[in-house]
């Protein structure tokens, strides 16, 4: 245990955290936090944890497993966001070790576990990309958002990409399952494919690789990640998740729709909770929006299925967010002449 930590019981820690949050959130938000933290207190009591100072990454892994047995993965993800927020605040008041919140890992969600209604609209994606095109061309945020919007690629697939996977002659990017070298695709070798970007989109990635502000480096296997960390190594998938979330916060490319300022917004800043923005959009929602946009633009479902590595059954059930009117409009274009 660190000598810098000051003893604090779980009960008092929860109450202090809720008192800290109360002035800045709605009553419903505070009540949700209280309910979620009540489960944490139950677990602490069951494990006879009387001092937050003693919590370790292994303890938090045990807590996640304990809650996972009772609730759906997507519900657990939401509950763990509150736990992480509390852990970061407890670290600030010297009650838990710094970085403990980052050791709380959410379970991977199966395809379609989130509501298909949660997706980025084309107008929002295009507005963000227009901003980055003009003001931060070929930056990491620009390249990352452009890639996921153009391809509907999963976060795990983005994590697996190397600079050498760019195929300049074909304006494409290559996806490989390299589990023995620290990266994998969701569907293993069956998910390996080439994905066409087109000249315009490929140029963004090519210019990003050449951007002098980009830190080049290699991972532990000697591979050069397409999206490296500050030290040049390969970032964790959760880091890519945060990058996308921050890049698509409305105030990153427009004015804040929630009348917040960067100084007071809990969703901004290096160690902030990126999901605290009411308009937050995660990589999976960008993937879902990209799939829907392809379908709306009359791309054959079979093509979308292969391009985005998703079965037709899952695509229709969980990813197709088109309205019934939009579906009719697409079908109308394939009808015979009257």
What's the helix and strand layout?
Elements: H1 10-21, H2 27-47, H3 57-68, H4 73-92, H5 122-135, H6 140-151, H7 155-160, E1 166-167, E2 172-175, E3 193-196, H8 199-210, H9 237-247, H10 250-253, H11 283-296, H12 301-308, H13 312-319, H14 324-332
Antiparallel strand pairs: 1-2, 2-3
CATH fold-level topology of the largest domain: hpI Integrase, Chain A
Order of helices and strands: HHHHHHHEEEHHHHHHH
**Low-pLDDT runs:** none
Number of helices: 14
**CA-based shape:** globular
- What do the pLDDT scores average to? 88
CATH level 1 class label of the largest domain = Mainly Alpha
- Percentage beta strand: under 5%
Q: What would CATH call the architecture of the largest domain?
A: Orthogonal Bundle
Question: Total domains, how many?
Answer: 2
N-to-C terminal Cα separation, in Å? Answer: 79 Å
Cα-based radius of gyration, to the nearest Å: 22 Å
Helix content: 40-55%
| Physical arrangement of strands within the biggest beta sheet | 1-2-3
Category from helices, strands and their pairing: mainly alpha
Largest sheet: 3 strands, antiparallel
The count of β-strands is 3
């Amino acid at each position: 245990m660190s000598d810098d930590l000051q003893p604090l019981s779980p009960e008092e820690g929860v109450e202090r955290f809720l008192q800290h949050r109360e002035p800045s959130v709605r009553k419903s938000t505070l009540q949700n936090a209280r309910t979620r933290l009540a489960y944490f207190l139950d677990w602490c009591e069951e494990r006879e944890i009387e001092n937050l100072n003693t919590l370790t990454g292994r303890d938090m892994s045990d807590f996640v497993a304990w809650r996972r047995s009772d609730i759906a993965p997507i519900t657990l993800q939401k509950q763990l966001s509150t736990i992480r927020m509390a852990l970061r605040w407890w670290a600030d008041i010297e009650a838990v070790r710094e970085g403990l919140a980052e050791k709380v890992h959410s379970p991977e969600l199966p395809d379609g576990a989130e509501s298909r209604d949660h997706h980025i609209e084309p107008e929002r994606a295009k507005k963000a990309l227009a901003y980055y095109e003009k003001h931060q061309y070929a930056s990491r945020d620009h390249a990352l958002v452009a890639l996921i919007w153009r391809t509907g690629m999963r976060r795990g697939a983005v994590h697996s990409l190397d600079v050498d996977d760019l195929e300049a002659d074909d304006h494409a990017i290559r996806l490989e399952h390299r589990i023995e070298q620290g990266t994998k695709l969701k569907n293993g070798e069956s998910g390996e494919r080439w994905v066409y970007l087109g000249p315009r989109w490929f140029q963004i990635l090519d210019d990003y690789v050449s951007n002098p502000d980009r830190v080049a480096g290699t991972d532990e296997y000697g591979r050069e990640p397409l999206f490296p960390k500050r030290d040049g190594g390969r970032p964790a998938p959760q880091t890519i998740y945060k990058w996308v979330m921050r890049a698509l916060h409305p105030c990153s490319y427009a004015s804040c729709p929630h009348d917040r300022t960067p100084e007071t917004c809990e969703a901004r800043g290096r160690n902030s909770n990126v999901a605290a923005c009411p308009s937050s959009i995660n990589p999976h929602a960008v993937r879902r929006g990209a799939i829907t946009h392809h379908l709306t633009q009359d791309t054959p479902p079979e093509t979308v299925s292969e391009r985005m590595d998703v079965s037709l059954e899952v695509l229709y059930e969980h990813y197709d967010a088109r309205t019934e009117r939009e579906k009719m409009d697409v079908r109308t274009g394939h009808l015979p002449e009257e």
